[in-house]
Amino acid sequence: MAKYQKLVEPFKIGNVELRNRFVMLPMTIEKVDNYHVTDDLVDFYEQRAKGHAGLIEIGSCYVCDCFGTEPKYHTTTGACGCWDDEFIPGFQRIAEVCHKHGSKVAAQLQLCYEWRASGDDPLLSYAPSKDVPSGPFVGMPEREYTKEEIAEVVKQYGQAARRCKDAGIDIIEIHAGIGYMVMRFLSKYSNHRTDEYGGSAENRARFLCEIIDEIHKTCGDDMPILVRISADDLMPDGNRIADTLELIPIIEAHGVDAWSVQAGFHEAPRPVANQIVPEGEFIDLAKQVKTVTSKPVFPGTRINTLDMCEKVVTEGYGDAVGMARQFIADPDTARKVEEGRPEQVRPCIVCSRCLDNIFIGKPCQCSVNANVWEGVEVGLPQDKPVTEKQHIAVVGAGPGGLEAARVAAERGHKVTVLEKSDKLAGLLTMAQVLNANIEPLVSYWNEEMKLHPNIEIKLNTKVDVDTLRALNPDQVIVSPGGGIIPIDVPGIDGKNVVKSEDIKAMCNGIVPEGKGMIWKAAVAAIKAQGGTVGFMRMGLNMKSGPTAIVGKRVVVVGGGFAGLEVAEAMCDGREIWVIDPAKKLGNGIGIIDKNPTINLLKKKGVHLMPLTELIEVTKKGAKVKNVETGEEQLIECDTVLTSLGVEQNTDLYDEIVKVWPHAKLIGDATTPDGKVYRTLEAVKGGYQASMAI
């Protein structure tokens, strides 16, 4: 049997047969125009249908009128409206393009934290119980639902479902998870009512059951209904899996055809979607749900690799597998598996940059797929072949340069990539040593470059203007990487100082300048082992403590994205201090990951010291000063590790642009002062540069 074969077997939800077991979970990706479906949104879903996703779910189809309002919960503004018949044509467009390519479509009916009965009423924050805070940005509820208002909400769900059916949508999903309105009725944490909608499991489920009954009334019993539920809401005194197992049969008796199982509330103290959450952390919740239902069940929280997908469907955790971010990263994930080329799947690196935007009401973005942000405005390379083939020289084989090469090649240009090291992927080569989620992306780029016969890779090639003259390209894209942010204090070149550029050089098989026999031996050993990531991690003792290179007590200079990643990667078996002159740590980390990352470091015993700058390195350690009080102290340590990130780097570009006036500079080299550019900015720059040629 071919690998992942079970994932491409068909299965059914109600009377709807799906071509495979891949479910693209719903996300509010902020591609609407005043709640109306746009060309960009249609294109987004059509790409995933072309990629053969079995079921595509339209995220957040809002059931109550939001026209002319300013919701406190920003994500609401990116929802698809479903409260009026004027929205039917938009849903019809999505259904038609997905059906054309063989995918089925579900619409996720949604009500977050705010509601009104009609467009004549104010939009207010509502809840089953007024004594419990609502979700992010909302605060305490302004209203507690009356029974008459509950009846009105139920009717809104029924009419929204009817509109979806009229538009040709195949399945209705009710969002009853993650702390949104329906889940707030289900959860013991948020529902303290004493009437027939609170208290017992039957009463807490009543609101959802009435919605299901209403949908059957408006759409008929043959319209499949899917419920997405947080099987453990992770809230204090909230629902645990035992409560969910009691709720499932009660709800299912009203006619549910499948269960999508997630975990958590948005405001839960325990993260559910970050990199720090192990993949597959919550799949057992779905397996337990399967013990009380014969309907299809699938997990859909913190899953992003094909190996985990296979585990789910072959080991009884679910009948299908739900992913959202992976389908953002690669719309063709399912098709590549069907066609027997899973190694070509572009991986989600679980960086949360998509969620960072979505959560504050901005359009979805992706670190590995720039088209998500650019959409129909810029288009896809395969849809914009060139009329005149040119020779494109790309200087630098980091993620920006490689993306520029891929896009230019797909459009029909000849491409030469010039890289000074002996490896592809630039800073990702080091990043994968610190962060295992990056390793599949490096593998992807190495595989992807093999697919394009019109791309020539020249490694171990130091580039200057004369090098390029010898190539005589028509266009030049310069992606040299950012400059290292300098730090000039006494002792910074001491033997007990390790700089981020030293680790980068070692990972690229280069002995850092000024380093002695220990470093030479480490680089030689890495080369002897074929430069494997595992061996590099072992050489740095990422998880087991000190080595001759990085000691037991470490001061990390730099509390931004790069410094905190280094601290988290190396803190096991070591004592680590992180210093930064900024008032708050975590520059460059988005809203989704910042607090969980900082809390994790604190939990692991890392000493976090904002408002602290390095003033000297001595043989005993790091001499530091509080930038507010001026107080100085010596932190005794074995290693001072600088990880300040990168800054703008235009030296090479400034020379090249004199000869090639249309040359483009991309990637970390364009980093503005005080900002942190990561993979997303590099990939976006490469994509835009090559699409513009």
Automatic annotation (TrEMBL):
Name of the molecule in the record: NAD(P)-binding protein
Keyword match Nucleus: no
Residues annotated as domain NADH:flavin oxidoreductase/NADH oxidase N-terminal: 6-343
Organism field: Adlercreutzia rubneri
Keyword line: Flavoprotein, FMN, Iron, Iron-sulfur, Metal-binding, Oxidoreductase
Pfam families given in the database record: Oxidored_FMN, Pyr_redox_2
Domain FAD/NAD(P)-binding: 391-655
Cofactor dependency: [4Fe-4S] cluster; FMN
